[in-house]
């Protein structure tokens, strides 16, 4: 169907997976609310995904490095996504939702990380921008958020499994056409993986990063509920995600023009400043329409932060452990941060409301920005990072 070196299957995989992921991020809290769960219970369910990812990300990353393949690990995970989601959406009690959610997320959460890791390596092989490949994930996210939001407004959020499976099967079809990554011949051993635990700059960076990523993940979980708290509808939630991810796609697509101008940590600090401003502004709005307008900051926060952090982490880890290191990064970004953001955010939102939650997120982002600035002026933070093909 496609040439063996074509990037079309990889772009389509990113498109379809992130289109399906949009449905979970944007509408799962509303679906759980429809099921009768309160704010704290929703927080527990949303925390299962990040908790599962802490174990799933390094596990699948290690298997990818050990067996020298990303393609076939992706295939297994996508099959698990389809089966797991079908079972997950049949559950009706809190306990069964949590248990089946853990199985579902165990297969689902590594797909984005493995897809981005493959895109990073393919971009290096072809000497092109990682952002021009990754932007297709953002396009899929944006289109899905707008389209599915409108569809669920009509048919009801209880039927969100149907569009989710559509994109899941699309991902399954294109994964067979992927060109696998060319890896070093030396097989990775567990002792090699232990080297990551001794990489102090890597671990310190991940620790400081948590202050920013916790606030980001709390927003992922609760922006839909916040918009409805302010009087918005499911369609408005979809529109908000569409605006945000459209700006994210623009940042990824234009990375080749701006990314090499400064050290990645400079861009991370800039994103931290914008995160702080964004969350404080969200806490002050009283009309959901203003949230839509402020969503243009999503691309300038997540887009810049993710691209810069992914690049910086890539240079901190040995090539032999690229998939493992990337998935440890993802486990921290989307796993540990997601647990804290979901549980803490749900408790704050139920007790004090969405405005207080976003004010707290702004304070946390401010602390993270200050710590990241201190990290950058340290000797290991100031070391130049070798430029890539951005």
Describe the protein in words.
- It is a single chain.
- This protein is an all-alpha fold and 390 residues long.
- It has 16 helices and no strands.
- The protein has helices at 8-34, 39-67, 71-88, 94-126, 130-155, 161-175, 190-193, 200-229, 234-253, 255-258, 264-284, 288-294, 297-316, 322-352, 354-377, 379-382.
- The longest helix is centred in the N-terminal third of the chain and has 33 residues, at 94-126.
Strand content: under 5%
Roughly what is the average pLDDT, rounded to an integer?
86
Largest sheet, in brief, is:
none
Question: Structural class, from secondary structure content?
Answer: mainly alpha
Helix content: over 70%
The end-to-end distance, rounded to whole angstroms, is 29 Å
CATH architecture: Up-down Bundle
Helical segment count: 16
Membrane topology: Multi-pass membrane protein
Main location: membrane
Transmembrane segments: 12-32, 44-63, 70-89, 95-115, 136-155, 161-181, 202-219, 239-258, 265-282, 288-307, 327-349, 355-377
Keywords: Cell inner membrane, Cell membrane, Membrane, Transmembrane, Transmembrane helix, Transport
Using brief descriptors, characterize the structure shown.
16 helices; mainly alpha; about 400 residues; Growth Hormone, Chain: A; transmembrane
